[in-house]
Design goal:
four-stranded parallel beta sheet; alpha/beta; Rossmann fold; 18 strands; single chain
């Protein structure tokens, strides 16, 4: 992704997902919550099909992405595909708003007794789903203006979950401000605290960034990892020097002392390593983002699993961007070429982009994930977790290229020195 320096990447915003049954009032709730017509409102069941995302600034939460999802009880012809999108939205969600609208039942027999209450089976499934993934959940009951059983439903939710739900009305605005306050209390403690460069750079350190502007770099702009890294280094009061690969020797000559840190594009790891001062630490944008967006120790372990591949191996290469591959594209050309050079032409590489990441990874011997700058950390970690659960090694572009270049043990990371 390419951006200008003053843009706020959507992947850095707090992702808040709204989930509930069909016609539970998700869209009307979201419109009331934002004060804007974000989603279409209709009495027709299943109006919301694909998730609808809206970037906003919400006090006291700050910059957010709000996601309206299809009903999780959608039984329509396209219901299964809509549910896939809802699960995808859940993978990205860092704070979940779960609308409880269970249908009331009378005289249901439980443990030999008859009782009145509400069918919360579907809501409780999703409540547990988020809890298992350590996603904070806020329980909400909508339509307070027309529900006469709202308090009874709140009581049952408390009994079933151990948490207090909030009764709101999207029509009158009742309880909406309480939602914002409750979300602020549930915000993940580590949100927004993860650093790109970590302890590798601090005030007054000189950081030299080697940034090839090849055919894949958009004219007049920098790619997102470069922009975010530059901004963080400037915020740390570092001295930032940026050059293209052919300008590296001249930049080093112009500096009075060797830079403390050299950050390069992973594709020219070998060249920069051979030409940098011995005392300068070396890393890459992709390696930095491996720690920033994912699980770096897992990626390092996955990269070392490359050695166990054979000519009959099958490798999944997962690119977050959805751009059309260009000449010498890293995911579709350069990494497959390196693998074939090492293991033979028989090795199979499969390339996917965007959110087209398989649920079943069992047919693959390795997954190589890009830096993930287009997605939030929650979603990248969901991919890593899926690979771990299926016991498939996973790494990322930068870590894999460092290993294939034979310098994985010579680069540094924000968390530790490899």
């Amino acid at each position: 992704m390419a951006v200008t320096l003053n843009e706020t990447p959507s992947a850095n915003r707090l992702h808040i997902g709204v989930f509930g049954r069909t016609n539970s009032g998700k869209s009307s709730f979201l419109n009331a919550f934002t004060g804007q017509e974000v989603s279409i409102i209709s009495d027709v069941s299943g109006t919301t099909t694909d998730p609808v995302s809206k970037p906003m600034e919400i006090n006291p939460l700050g910059p957010c992405i709000l996601i309206d999802t299809a009903g999780f009880d959608d039984n329509s012809e396209l219901g299964e595909r809509r549910m896939e999108k809802t699960y995808l939205a859940a993978d990205k969600t860092e704070l979940a708003i779960l609308l409880f609208s269970g249908n009331p039942y009378d005289d249901r027999e439980t443990c030999g007794k008859t009782e009145k209450g509400f069918d919360l089976s579907k809501e409780l499934y999703w409540y547990r789903y988020f809890k298992e993934r350590k996603t904070p959940v806020l329980a909400v009951v909508n339509k307070a203006d027309i529900r006469k059983d709202g308090e009874a439903l709140l009581t049952q939710i408390k009994r079933e979950t151990g948490e207090d739900a909030i009764l709101v009305s999207a029509k009158t605005g009742q309880g909406i401000e309480r939602i914002k306050e409750a979300l602020a209390r549930k915000m993940p403690e580590d949100f927004g605290t993860v650093s790109i460069t970590g302890t590798l750079a601090s005030k007054n350190d000189v950081a030299l960034l080697v940034m090839p502007q090849d055919i894949q770099a958009p004219k007049g702009r920098l790619i997102l990892p470069q922009v975010q890294t530059i901004r963080e280094l400037l915020d740390k009061s570092c001295v930032v020097v940026s050059v293209t690969a052919d300008g590296l020797p001249q930049a080093l000559k112009a500096l009075k002392e060797p830079p403390k840190l050299v950050i390069t594009d992973s594709q020219i790891f070998g060249y920069v390593y051979e030409n940098k001062p011995k005392e300068s630490m070396l890393t890459s944008f992709s390696v930095l983002f491996a720690a920033y967006k994912g699980d770096l120790p897992c990626y390092i372990e996955g990269a070392r699993a490359i050695d166990a591949l054979t000519e009959n191996a099958k490798v999944l290469i997962a690119e977050c961007c959805t751009h059309a591959p260009l000449k010498e594209d890293i995911g579709t050309v350069k990494i497959p070429r390196l693998l074939k050079k090492r293991f033979g032409e028989g090795i199979t590489t499969v390339h996917v982009s965007g959110t087209d990441f398989p649920q079943d990874l069992s047919e693959y011997d390795l997954v190589i994930q890009c830096g993930g700058c287009m997605f939030n950390r929650k979603y990248v970690m969901s991919r890593i977790q899926r690979a771990k659960e299926q016991k498939v090694p996973i790494t990322n572009y930068g870590v894999a290229l460092a290993h294939l270049s034979g310098i994985l043990d010579k680069i540094v990371t924000p968390e530790n020195r490899v």
